[in-house]
Design goal:
The structure is a homodimer. Chain A is an alpha+beta fold. Chain A contains 13 helices and 18 strands. In chain A, helix 4 crosses helix 7. Chain A is globular. At the A-B interface, strand 1, helix 4, strand 6, strand 7 and strand 8 of A face strand 1, helix 4, strand 6, strand 7 and strand 8 of B. Strand 8 of chain A pairs antiparallel with strand 8 of chain B, so a sheet runs across the interface.
Chain lengths: 458, 458
């Protein structure tokens, strides 16, 4: 059986014989007996296996290496030792797969930097058992939230020939032999490439998502995304996952309702299912993590305009590194102050149009757009969204103002001519959510096999 | 309110006033009244709106274009007309977004080829409302099946520097200016690229999935996958989605149990939730679709070796185009015959080692590997899996035999040295499942925005 099932109702197995398969996470040997710290990976909890020299192959068992895969048959008993309530008194322990003594993951403290170097083994550590279980459960929380509310899950394409995000920010993708690229008149002859055009992998599914929202009303995407940023910070990776919901007949207020409800749902879902993992993370990674998460699900999210935020920042008795400015973005120090000021998450709305994207709805003041960023204590900007410009002429004007080449996105703009309506959407970087949920600071430690500049191993 | 909620308990809304927002899917006009075929995309069912010249803006309403977004306020009444049980008697109809008379999706029959050309509008048609709803529900069925059974969802990386699949089958990915690629000694200087190495987007998450199965016991991936095949068939696309579960302490028999249970679960899940969609597809796309799906969930899956299959094929009184051969793969005609022979799905196991992958477990006969293909009536090969070679030395030998360069996958092979155990996994192409579930024949029609050779629009 599996540990996850055993722990669901462990009392009912007391004094019964059970069989388990898993791995030796530690092995302490005494003259006439031994203790195996056993884990099968199905839950965060381990189980202690006790064996004695009553067993015929006692010597073989004592020689079992840390890290080995074993099969254990034994009786579940109340433990007399400290540190656990139950243990297995072994009747038989069989080696299923040996572990070399050169195992790079010896049972001692390792730095996270070292663990990144052995990314194929680090999921076996307590830290990454916790982090990647939370990742999996949080992913399902997101699917469950949207599916329960009848959103359509759309797999938007990753390969694209549209470079409206700016081709510098996108990976080029090709089937050419890179050493021998066909050229015509000195330029790459893309006609000979698989798609017959210059192609990229994309950084957003939003445009395609909007096309589906105009057919299915409310949709979401959840898939990998790529950025070429040559940036070695704790929060940047070149491959990460994004969630991008898009909702027809929904304005900015409605969008904030959804963002708030979704975030609380996901946090509560993880709180309900990952208690062991979160307690570990609370103890060893971010003190107060559980309190932070429990507070969030019960907090009231403030809604305030960018202009009002700047007012508050200017009145604050603080020497800012970056001077708050009505026409500019806010800095990290401002985000932090504002969430502390309101003692909870803050939706900041109605941003200066010049610092936001071309497809966002222009407000009647002609100066701001109906955009919203969600600032969360301890996470910074967690979601970014907007009401979309549904007026064809206004959107064309914005494209002209911002020098957006409309030709590759004419289909997207045409959605406004064919029964387009008020609609809104947002994006959430999944890893940013995970950093918040786990307290782990570095994006490299919430992605199974992270891709960052000069680092694409495994 | 939304149609999906209205139809959940429509009787309770009878003679009540409701408000709906959605689109005009058809508009029939008479002198003193009119009928609007209304859909809001939240469910497959439409609703008829009746309006009369009692309404003050009758003329405006009559001028509303097909395709427009509208808001309707009215009373739900029993319909006196044929074709529907209920309808809305409108009190007010407001235009939310006009639709140009040049709308490329006029209310008439369109070929699927034409609809592919307007991929951003086709989700509004009945066919694609059905197909993409099934796609979304089936995706959640898969997540639900695995999450309910405690599988860990792993986001394996798409960018890779490992070319063990054969670099010809993988897209290269780069940040270089393609017109000006830095070279050293006449060769591409990959040190200057973002990752400092030659990089690809991958066609499988299996290797990374195995690393996680050795930590979490049972895992699954579900994400996009890429192939460069220059193949214009009904079943090939260059971007598609795959599901790849991997299970520790699981042999080939256990794997087949999981495959069978999962497939039945997913089909039943879709049957339970997409009745309107499947009835439509049964009527207009594949006659007998519902019967086929209902039969599957109640069928017994046969388990038979490749050798036995060849025996049966050789004995069959059929003039094969491809002669059945104990050392070769089976052809489509054979697959069809075998599923008809057993009148249900068939697991074919123990394939000749020379036609299967290097990581599959070598059987004791030294001739076959513990691989399994699932053949499903009306779908062909739906899943492919195997027990993996857990013996380090045997795996190295197989790599040598098959000229697999082990250097880039040494970490994967080393999993055998560090507590590796019996384990198995399979892959299922999500679009192949959808073709089976919907009866739609062409992969281009089950992918929101398909990417195929010379075709990467939108």
């Amino acid at each position: 059986m599996k540990l996850v099932d055993l722990y669901k109702d462990i009392n009912s197995y007391l004094d019964k014989e059970i069989e388990l398969k898993g791995w030796i996470r530690n092995h302490r040997k005494q003259a006439n007996f031994g203790f195996i710290d056993f884990s099968d990976g199905t839950c965060f909890k381990h189980l202690q296996i006790v064996y004695t020299n009553d067993l015929a192959d006692f010597n073989n068992i004592q020689s079992l290496n840390y890290g080995s895969a074993i099969k254990v048959r034994g009786n579940l008993v109340k433990s007399e030792g400290s540190g656990q309530d139950y243990e297995i008194k072994a009747l038989e322990i069989t080696l299923e797969g040996d572990c070399s003594p050169e195992y790079p993951l010896q049972p001692k403290r390792h730095t996270r930097e070292y663990l990144r170097e052995i990314a194929y083994l680090r999921p076996r550590t307590n830290l990454f058992q916790a982090v990647f279980r939370v990742r999996s459960v949080a992913a399902h929380a997101i699917h469950t939230y949207f599916q329960d509310r009848n959103y359509l899950y759309v797999h938007t394409p990753l390969i694209t020939t549209t470079d409206c995000e700016g081709s510098d920010q996108m990976f080029k993708i090709t089937t050419f032999d890179m050493n021998n690229i066909p050229k015509v008149d000195g330029e790459v002859d893309y006609k000979k490439d698989l798609f017959g055009k210059k192609a990229y992998v994309t950084g957003t599914g939003q445009l395609h998502g909007e096309a589906f929202a105009m057919a299915f009303n409310n949709i979401y995407t959840f898939g990998p995304t790529f950025r070429t940023e040559n940036s070695n910070t704790k929060t940047h990776a070149n491959e990460f996952w994004m969630i991008e919901p898009e909702i027809a007949f929904c304005d900015l207020e409605g969008l904030m309702d959804i963002e708030e409800e979704m975030l609380k749902f996901v946090v509560q879902y993880v709180l309900d299912r990952c208690n062991d993992e979160l307690e570990f993370l609370d103890q060893f990674v971010e003190k107060g993590l559980l309190e932070k998460l429990n507070k969030l699900v019960n907090s009231k999210f403030t809604r305030i305009t960018h202009h009002e935020v700047i007012d508050i920042l200017k009145k604050a008795d603080i020497k800012w590194e970056f001077i708050p400015d009505y026409d500019s973005d806010i800095a990290k120090e401002h985000e932090k102050y504002i969430t502390e000021y309101f003692n909870g998450p803050v939706f900041i709305t109605d941003w200066p149009k010049d610092i936001k994207a071309w497809y966002m709805k222009l407000n009647s003041d002609n100066k701001t757009v109906a955009a919203v960023d969600l600032e969360v204590p301890g996470a910074g900007e967690l979601m970014g969204g907007s009401q979309r410009e549904e007026d064809y002429d206004k959107l064309i004007n914005r494209c002209k103002e911002l020098n957006v080449d409309t030709e590759p996105v004419d289909w997207f703009i045409n959605l406004r001519k064919y029964g387009g309506c008020v609609h809104s959407g947002f994006g959430m970087g999944f890893e940013r959510l995970l950093i918040y949920l786990t307290g782990v600071e570095n994006i490299r430690d919430v992605i199974p096999f992270p891709r960052t500049p000069k680092s694409c191993d495994y």
